[in-house]
Specification:
The chain is α/β, with parallel strands linked by helices and 259 residues long. It is built from eleven helices and nine strands. It is globular, with a radius of gyration of 19 Å.
């Protein structure tokens, strides 16, 4: 059985905990399906305006469920597994909700791929980050070869992919992979503070930023700027946009819509 998850909502923040500490939060078919389903439910219910994913026990996640994968008899079963995994991570990335990964201990293989699909990442300085699939004679199959080089220098990503080597959270922060470094005893509190900051802002801003960044990835600069102008104008004309400017002029806190 794959790692189960626990969910909760508090103060506008949706929480997803990987609850398989005895198995180092290995991600199996049921796990990635449950994560995607939980985010979808947060969207439908409307109470959560930001999401935090974290792991129980000693690590964030040691990777994909090797026990499940080792039972596969051939290519078809493995391909089905990674298709499902990548679809789940694509759904996470495409969600209008901002998603934060709070990592401790280790985020390896599929665990790091899960974090790469999130919008923001926190980690402790000692957290081990890597895609060790090369040591098994394969490459990552859930977006690792594509998302990692888009977040850190290509030469570093290539080395990590070819050798299966890891980097620390501290090094990840220096490279731009990690947004915020936290100590182990403040990681969850720091993630909560960041998520609440997002939740208390205009809900349309993270959603629009995610859509714009996704739509213009790889586009020529001129095309990206053209789409940016359209999005910025649409947001300015929206109720939240008008409220934001009015509140600034009046020197008061804005009262954004809760959608």
């Amino acid at each position: 059985m794959g790692t189960q998850i626990k969910t909760a909502v508090s103060g506008g923040v949706g929480w997803i905990q990987l609850d398989g500490s005895d198995r180092l939060n290995a991600i199996g078919t049921s796990t990635y399906a449950a994560i995607a389903s939980a985010v979808s439910e947060f969207e439908k219910q409307g109470a959560a305006r930001a999401v935090v994913i974290h792991g129980a026990g000693r690590v964030f996640s040691a990777g994909a469920d090797i026990g499940e994968i080792s039972s596969f008899e051939g290519r078809f079963e493995f391909e089905t597994f990674i298709h499902g995994f990548t679809d789940a991570l694509d759904a996470l990335e495409a969600s209008p909700l901002p998603v934060i990964a709070a990592m401790h201990g280790a985020a390896l293989g599929g665990g790091l791929e899960l974090a790469l699909a999130c919008d923001l990442r926190l980690a402790t300085p000692e957290t081990r980050l890597g895609l060790p699939e090369a040591k098994l004679g394969v490459l990552p199959g859930a977006g690792g070869t594509q998302r990692l080089p888009r977040l850190i220098p290509g030469a570093v990503a290539t080395e990590m992919l070819m050798l299966g080597s890891t980097i620390s959270g501290q090094r990840g922060y220096q490279l731009g992979l990690i947004n915020t470094l936290s100590e182990a005893d403040t990681l969850i509190a720091d993630a909560d503070a960041l998520a609440r900051q997002l939740a208390n802002g205009s809900a349309q801003v993270p959603a629009a930023a995610k859509r714009l960044l996704r739509a213009t990835a790889g586009s020529p600069l001129s095309e990206g700027i053209s789409q940016e102008r359209t999005v910025a104008a649409d947001l300015f004309a929206s109720p939240d946009g008008r409220e934001g400017f009015s509140a600034f002029v009046a020197k008061r806190a804005p009262a954004f819509q809760r959608i």
